[in-house]
Recover the amino acids of this structure.
């Protein structure tokens, strides 16, 4: 969305849409957002997974109106780039409410994070540790694990995360460089459909916590990533995931452990709140096959269909 207009929900979305589409000069696609749906999702999260602090994944929808709303509701933010960090800070979010959750950062972005005080960031390789050591040695580092993501629609393990067997080596390197590893993170893949992947990932994270403690890293943070369904009809699956997470945390990271639990939900909060309105701008036949052309596409609002 490039502009945002707030209307009385009692008037309904239909009248607003009609007023926009009745103007012949207004032929651009647009979204309508149900703000109440986002608020409901935040309340539901706090009810179902009360121990887990959500850090909204800005990459999912970085509209300033969404960010302002979620910031006002007390959420933290998962940023993956300099631009996302700046966008979040521009709506008044303090740097200590941001995790720079990108294990492979450019040198200039690390410098920028240091300049604005975003000190919590992820890593999954040795080169990243050397970059951080030279540019931001005071950073609080979170080791990202590669976990089973076979139950997700969009698998992220091919890009990010170190193998469980390699975690101890990376901790050793961090120790030798004098860096501060404060926790572990993982991501079970976008739009996960298998609750037990969270249980297995939390169990793996416990192993790394124990390794870290033995090496002089008394870790205090567990980031259980994203992957939570939020589309219409999500409730049953989300309830199953929430139950699995709560049970696994109670077993491996009980409240008395003092470990802070955060997460990186994105779609969960916004996917069902947004409705895209498009227009058919042309039509023709191709070898007897009807073809319709919209004013939006895979290089715009439908880009997720390529990967999902």
């Amino acid at each position: 969305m490039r502009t945002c207009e707030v209307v009385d929900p009692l008037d309904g979305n239909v009248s607003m849409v009609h007023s926009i589409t009745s103007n012949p000069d207004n032929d651009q696609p647009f979204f309508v957002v149900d703000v109440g749906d986002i608020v409901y999702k935040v309340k539901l999260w706090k009810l179902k997974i009360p121990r887990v602090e959500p850090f909204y994944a800005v990459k999912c929808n970085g509209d300033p109106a969404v960010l302002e709303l979620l910031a006002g509701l007390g959420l933290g933010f998962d940023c993956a780039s300099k631009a996302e960090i700046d966008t979040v800070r521009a709506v008044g979010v303090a740097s200590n409410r941001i995790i720079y959750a990108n294990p492979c950062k450019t040198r200039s972005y690390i410098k920028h994070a240091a300049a604005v005080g975003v000190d919590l960031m992820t890593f999954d390789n040795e080169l990243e540790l050397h970059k951080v050591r030279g540019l931001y040695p005071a950073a609080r580092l979170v080791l990202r694990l590669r976990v089973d993501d076979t139950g997700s629609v969009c698998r992220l393990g091919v890009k990010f995360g170190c193998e469980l067997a390699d975690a101890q080596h990376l901790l050793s390197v961090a120790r030798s460089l004098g860096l501060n590893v404060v926790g572990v993170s993982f991501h079970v893949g976008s739009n996960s459909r298998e609750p037990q992947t969270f249980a297995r990932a939390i169990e793996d994270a416990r192993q790394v916590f124990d390794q870290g403690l033995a090496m002089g890293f008394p870790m205090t943070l567990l980031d259980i990533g994203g992957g939570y369904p939020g589309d219409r009809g999500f409730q049953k699956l989300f309830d199953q995931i929430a139950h699995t997470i709560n049970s696994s945390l109670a077993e491996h990271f009980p409240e008395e452990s003092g470990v802070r639990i955060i997460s990186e939900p994105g779609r969960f909060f916004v996917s069902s709140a947004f409705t895209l309105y498009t227009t058919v701008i042309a039509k023709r036949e191709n070898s007897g096959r009807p073809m319709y052309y919209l004013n939006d596409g895979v290089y715009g609002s439908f880009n997720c269909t390529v990967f999902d």
Notes: The mean pLDDT is 90.
